[in-house]
Structures are given as structure tokens and as C-alpha cells.
Amino acid sequence: MGNSIYTIFMPREAFSRRTNAELVARSLTELDIPASVNERHDIVVDKHKVSGSAYKITSLRAYHHGTMLIDADTDRLKGCLSKKRMNNKGIVSKGVESVPSPVTNLRDYSFTIDHQQFCESVLSEFVLAYNDGIPVKPIIFNDTSRLPKQVETTRQELMTWEWIYGQTPEFTNTVDTNFSWGNVKAHILSRHGKIIKADITTDKDMMHESTITAAISVALEGLSYSRFAVDEAINKIQRDVPGLINLDNKHISRDIRNWLYDRL
């Protein structure tokens, strides 16, 4: 894919976004690539981004995850990151918004740079910064390697729902659409991967439409925010209020389910 991925994992009290970014930038400077760190803690060369970062900070630990563009297809990258390809209309988040930036490859500044050189240079800077210059032996894993116990424990933690979704910043998703039976608007508030409040309304004042949209709204609250949330809400209604969804109004719940399946 033409890019390298790196993660710096450390105690929270030792963590600094800028310090870690500067460590990686120094490793590039040692390879005669004039890298620096901008005000957003991105690593840049000639004001063009070569590495972006994401962070995960818990009560005890901090993770600095980054990518490094070695020889990537930047045209394809720009296409993947285009807002036209992102189906996030209606979403308002309290998370840190991504800012589009011009990008470049390290290969534009060094004909010899590759993944191995980058890794070795970062390791050298890491040893100087955090291990008093004492060399360490890299551990190389493949598909048949047995992970050390602590690494395996961390790996299992990183696969849990709580880790992947449980600390998602608060956001709202507001969408609307038209069905043959009326216009429908959904406003959903989510925090830490759960639906905190849902408000699905319709412009039709008929009994079936208003009853079903209100019932799904109530049933969604407390569920995990996912494309399957409406399925779970409908199952909850059928279990707790048998007969509320029936042959006369089943098409309403089905339409809402199919619509929100692609929007959650």
C-alpha cells in the first residue's frame, strides 16, 4: 500500500502528542528528509503532510497511532478521503474534526527510503528518548508467531466493543426522508457508542404512523449505535408490547428499519 503504520504505547503521564511526533520527525531528519511538526502535530515536509496521527488516552495508558506515506498512490488516497465519498450528512460530532491537507510521499525526497529504513530510524530515536540509548532487539512477528502474554492480553482488549466503540465522543445524527405514507425525520443522540436519545417524527397525524415512530424512538434508547439498532428496537417492541406492530402498520416499521440501516 506504500505506507507504514506505527504505534507508540506508553504510560499516560509520559505521553505528549508533540514529543512523539517530533521523535518521528527526527528519525526522518536522520535520513536526510527535512521533516518538521506543525501546529496540529502532523509531520510535514515542505508543508505537505507525510504522517497523520490518532490518539487513544485512557486513565493509565496512551496510544499514539500514526501512518507514514512512503510511496503511496496519493491520487487514490485523495479520492478515498474526499467528502463526496463520505456518507456523514447530518452528523454533528464533538470529536476532533479532520482537516484536509496536501500530502506527499517520503520517496519524493529520498530515492532509497523504504519501510525497513523508516522502522530502524524510528527505533533508534525511540531508544535515545526512552531507553537511555541502550539498544533493544526488535521482535518480529508473523502469522505463526506466539505473542507474549501481555501483548496477547492487550490484543484481546483492543478487540472488545468497549475499546472500539465504548468511548466514542458524543454526536448527533439528523436525517429525513419521504415515504409513500409521509415524511419522516430522525434525530439521534449517541454517546460512548450508545443511543442516549432518539426522536423519530412524522408529518402524518394518523394513528399508525405516530404510534410506530414514537414506539421505535423509545425502544432505541439505550441500545448500541449500529445499523442493527432498529432491528433490536422492533424486537424489543414485539416482546414488550405484543400486537403493537401488526399487519396494518408493519410496513411503517419495515420502511424505517430499511432507511436507518444505511444511515446509522
What does this structure look like?
- With 264 residues, this protein is an alpha+beta fold.
- It has 8 helices and 10 strands.
- It has a 4-stranded antiparallel β-sheet with strand order 7-8-9-10. Strands 1-6-5 form a 3-stranded antiparallel β-sheet, with helices on one face. A 3-stranded antiparallel β-sheet has the order 2-3-4, with helices on one face.
- Helix 1 crosses helix 3 (115-130), helix 6 (207-220) crosses helix 7 (229-240) and helix 7 (229-240) packs antiparallel against helix 8.
- It is elongated.
For the residues shown, what is the average pLDDT? 90
Mass-distribution shape: elongated
Main sheet strand line-up = 7-8-9-10
What percentage of amino acids are in beta strands?
Answer: 15-25%
Number of strands: 10
Q: How much helicity do the residues have?
A: 25-40%
Through-space gap between termini: 29 Å
Secondary-structure class: alpha+beta
- Gyration radius (Cα, Å) is 24 Å
Element order, helices and strands? EHEEEEEHEHHHEEEHHH
Largest sheet: 4 strands, antiparallel
Low-confidence stretches: none
The helix tally amounts to 8
